[in-house]
Design goal:
Number of domains: 1
Helix content: 25-40%
Shape: globular
Number of strands: 15
CATH superfamily: Creatinase/methionine aminopeptidase superfamily
Number of helices: 4
Distance between the termini: 32 Å
Radius of gyration: 17 Å
Strand order of the largest sheet: 8-7-9-14-15
Structural class: alpha+beta
Largest sheet: 5 strands, antiparallel
Length: 250
């Protein structure tokens, strides 16, 4: 069931989104060679809790951390570890959520660790812009297929593949609500977007094949061919005046 949010609920979601976005910003600023992925997670958790919110991911389905920190060929759900030290040239995707007054802000960004290769930078740039294309398509009266198609067209036109096994989602009182928001699709198909809907659009774009596999820990998901992957995400609200990004940092 898709839940339309009231103006009061959207106001709370803006605050949850602000906290999540700032946690992402501060965690990204901590990235440098020699820093552990565990420390990145600690920065995000500390900020969220200082704001009177809860790290949404912590304990979610048994996940052991406050942020997913996914490096290089890890697509999503990377588990932060004290012994995983970042190296110059890595690309680091951080996905973090904050729950504030019962509502969730969820966002992700892929950061460079120092100077990265031209290939890695191009992948990150393309993934970030594919998210922007998806958001631009998320207007009241459009359909989810329009959003997914916008992401897919942009990424595939530049030689990349779109992960199919994981998709975006509705967001609100729960981190994962209806509807599912694929990063691929057919224009004019799927659920119609209505004012009051809140969704998380999150392209996961691979340098090589679209296929992925999950490691034995049950969480860490990597590209099937070992090539790089990037991940960007914003929570947005559908409004009569166009899409509004809820996960905006100070």
């Amino acid at each position: 069931m898709i839940v339309l949010k009231t103006s009061r609920e959207l106001k709370i979601m803006r605050e949850a989104g602000r906290i999540a976005a700032n946690a992402l910003k501060f965690a990204g600023a901590a990235i440098e060679p020699g820093v552990s992925t565990w420390e990145i997670d600690r920065v995000a958790r500390r900020y969220i809790e200082e704001q009177g919110a809860k790290p949404t991911f912590l304990g979610y389905g048994g996940f052991p951390a406050s942020a997913c920190v996914s490096v290089n060929n890890v697509v999503i759900h990377g588990i932060p570890k004290k012994n995983h030290l970042l190296r110059k040239g890595d690309i680091v995707s951080i996905d973090v959520g904050a729950t504030y007054e019962g509502f969730v802000g969820d966002n992700a960004y892929t950061f460079p660790c120092g100077k990265v290769s031209e290939e890695a930078q191009r992948l990150m740039d393309t993934t970030r812009e594919s998210l922007a294309e998806g958001i631009r398509a998320a207007v009241a009266g459009a359909r989810l297929g329009d959003v997914g198609s916008a992401v897919q067209r942009y990424a595939e036109a530049r030689g990349y593949s779109v992960v199919r096994d994981y998709v975006g989602h509705g967001v609100g009182a729960k981190m994962h609500e209806d509807p599912s928001v694929p990063n691929y699709g057919t224009p004019g198909r799927g659920v119609r977007l209505l004012p009051g809907m809140t969704i998380a659009i999150e392209p996961m774009i691979n340098q090589g094949v679209k296929e992925v596999r999950t490691l034995n820990d049950g969480w860490t998901t990597v590209t099937a061919d070992g090539k790089l992957s990037a991940h960007f995400e914003n929570s947005i609200a559908i409004t009569p005046d166009g899409p509004v990004i809820l996960t905006v940092a100070d």
